[in-house]
Amino acid sequence: MQAFDYLQRSGLLSEYGDISTDIDLHCRALMDYLTTARGDVRWQFQVPELGEGGACSLFGQLATEPYSLLPILGGDTPATQHALSKLSAIASYYQQHSGQDWFGIYQARPNVAGEPVLVKLAYYGAASRAEFPLNSEFAKISNNSTVGLSGQARVINSVADYLAAGGEYYTCDPKVQAEACLPLFDQSGKIAGIVDAEHFQQAIFTPAAMALLVAVCLIVPEYLP
To answer: What does the pLDDT read at residue 214?
Structure first.
């Protein structure tokens, strides 16, 4: 997918204008980096305890058992190892160049119960939920699920203002003041997942910041397992 097509399809064009030139520059730099870069593969990671009914995360309270990607990805294979390594490298690159406090890459796929979810494959930052239900009910409280269903980006430069205006927000970390949740599209144009970036300051998602994040969104689908 070309940068302009992504901006148009995700709904970002009206808010940020045609930033395709900057996106293309970031894409080339990221692809050059990925020719040799390898990231650390994490098959398991700590996750927060879920609240009553499993709807929300209890920040600061970690579950006893870590989350394992092995069941949902069908085991450890060379192809999956390669995919996770590249996704981890992308997360590292984004951390180095963005200054964002939290970032995650999620793929849309069925979980072990056959339910559609967004599963976190690579990230940096504080422990966070591993799976987000991908259904209309959960989307009422979750930007991740909303974007994963609609393919429309959601950028919140002030969480406080968003909540004051009546917006629903799934709080993983109360320090987060701004969030950008963007869709991933496969070669056919189908929604393949999302990326989520968060910052502890407001008004951080400028056109320049979004150009880098969109570039990541254009590259990530090539490496999804």
So the answer is: 98
Average pLDDT (183-196) is 97
CB 150 within 8 A of CB 194: no
What band does 50 get if pLDDT is binned at 50, 70 and 90? confident
Q: Which two tokens stand for residue 100?
A: 């964002």
User: How far from 148 is each of 34, 54, 87, CA to CA, in Å?
Assistant: 26, 19, 18
Strand ranges in 69-190 using DSSP code E only, listed in sequence order? 102-110, 116-124, 131-133, 154-156, 178-185
Find the CATH number of the domain harbouring 128: 3.30.450.40
Residue % of the chain over a pLDDT of 70: 93
**For the chain, first and last CA: distance in Å?**
18
The pLDDT of residue 57: 64
| Burial of residue 190, with CB atoms counted within 10 A of its CB: 0-12 exposed, 13-18 middle, 19 or more buried | exposed
Give the structural domain span for 129.
Answer: 3-223
Name the domain count of the chain.
Answer: 1
